[in-house]
Design brief:
By secondary structure, this protein is α/β, with parallel strands linked by helices. It contains eleven helices and ten strands. Helix 5 packs parallel to helix 6.
Length: 282
């Protein structure tokens, strides 16, 4: 296994693309966030808001009917499409061409939802970030993994990674299994943790930002929104993953003097995104 490449500020400045002065929302990318189920609409609110706060021109959330008012009131900047079902997603149907899709946040594992995801994966050609229960659904239906477009980004936490790969007995074995999986299916894996690693084939990138404040509910939903937004803005998938993880961690570093570890919540990641981006501008 080769040594990880450290994701430093210098690495990030080589990736980061400032917003053109003549830009408008029509050329800043349109992200589609698919997720939510009864009692878990907060995840879609976090993910969608993170996407719009990361420079994306347009964001649409595809959710079950029960979440329509929740998302519309929580984030007026985000457009909403709803499933025909009230409490969970059964048929993913949208009438535009997104530049990137983020799927899985709060989506649940209903059989109808699994079938809807299978159909989407079968039809889809759009760059995609797969998180949360969409990852667990892939673990339950491993033959579907071969339907993923090349360079699809998977963002598992340790338990989701274990469901995908099977158990490991050492860090070395975990990395070996992840690299093998990444190469076999030509996908990028964001191994969430402290630190977070990004695996693309045999290349391993190690993030250098972040602190224990990020160990809070919804933190991963926000990361999915950030990476999906960057993908929609036409970043290469590996660069979207690297930049997204770096900015996500940086918000916690910037916020720490104000919030401490205990009082930092996922919404604070979104609130501090502007300051994180400004560190790249100056």
């Amino acid at each position: 296994m080769q040594l990880p490449i450290e994701i430093t500020k210098q690495e990030i400045l080589n990736i980061y693309k400032p917003i053109p002065l003549n830009s408008h929302k029509g050329i800043q990318g349109h992200a589609l966030i698919i997720g939510g189920s009864y009692g878990k609409m907060g995840s879609v609110c976090l993910s969608s808001k993170a996407a719009i706060k990361s420079g994306c021109g347009l964001v649409t959330a595809f959710i079950p009917k029960c979440g329509c008012e929740i998302v519309q009131i929580s984030i007026p900047e985000v457009m909403v499409l709803t499933d025909i079902q009230e409490n969970f997603i059964t048929n993913i149907d949208y009438d535009f061409t997104p530049n990137a899709i983020g799927i899985g946040i709060g989506i649940g594992q209903e059989i109808a939802t699994q079938n809807a995801i299978h159909q989407l994966l079968f039809d889809n050609k759009t760059p995609m970030v797969i998180d949360a229960d969409a990852l667990n659904i892939l673990s339950l239906n491993p033959t579907w993994i071969s339907l993923l477009e090349p360079k699809t980004i998977l963002t598992p936490h340790p338990k989701e990674l274990e469901r995908l790969l099977g158990k490991w007995h050492s860090d070395e074995e975990k990395f070996a299994k992840t690299i093998e999986f990444s190469m076999k299916f030509d996908v990028i894996i964001v191994m969430k943790g402290a630190p977070t690693y990004i695996i693309e084939g045999e290349k391993i990138y190690q993030n250098t930002t972040g602190n224990p404040a990020l160990a809070t509910a919804g933190s991963g939903d926000v990361l999915t929104g950030i990476i999906t937004s960057l993908l929609a803005q036409n970043y290469e998938p590996i660069n979207a993953a690297i930049l997204g993880v770096y900015l996500h961690g940086l918000t916690a570093d910037i916020a720490l003097p104000d919030t401490g570890y205990q009082s930092f919540i996922a919404s604070d990641i979104i609130n501090y995104l502007g300051k994180a981006f400004l560190t790249l501008e100056n």
